[in-house]
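Reopening this ticket.

The earlier resolution said the output was attached, but the attachment link was broken on my side. Pasting everything inline this time so it's all in one place.
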Amino acid sequence: MAQLFVNPEFTNKIFVFKDRQEAGAVLAEMLRPKYERAPNVWVLAIPAGGVPVGLVIAQKLKLPFDLIFVRKIHFPDNPEAGFGALSFDGEVLLNEELVAYAGLDEKTIAHQIQLEKEDLKERELLFRQGKKFPDLGGQTVILVDDGLASGYTMMAAVRSVLNAGRKKL
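Inline output:
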């Protein structure tokens, strides 16, 4: 089961942190009592924005750090908006309500998924440089991104971590 850490001082605010490094430092302090130097705990960050946040958390808590690759499935005519997400292990999540509202057909959806698969492969080659994804069997995972819009990329990452045999997320 997931545990949610909430600091009421940060709710309902805009520009909560000065930058991603400060966000990582604040989050690390919130996690420190339970996770500092904890055995069998990994910090996995979603590139690109989650990396500076997750790296600070991992460094401050003295935990191993790695990347988890997920991609928003973008609308064909809008590179900023997405209608789902895809993870490195092939997990696909679609916002079915949004897909229906936008009138996307199966061919368009399949094409956009293929584009994101290609992008994921390129990113993994660039950033992993042949290094394998960590074995998460029996591990606790702290999954980090720098924010959530619809939440689909995080949900895809969560499913991938669950599929990788983690102990706790």
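Reporter confirms the inline version is readable. The helical segments are 20-35, 50-61, 96-102, 106-128, 152-163. Residues 18-163 form a domain with the Rossmann fold fold (CATH 3.40.50).
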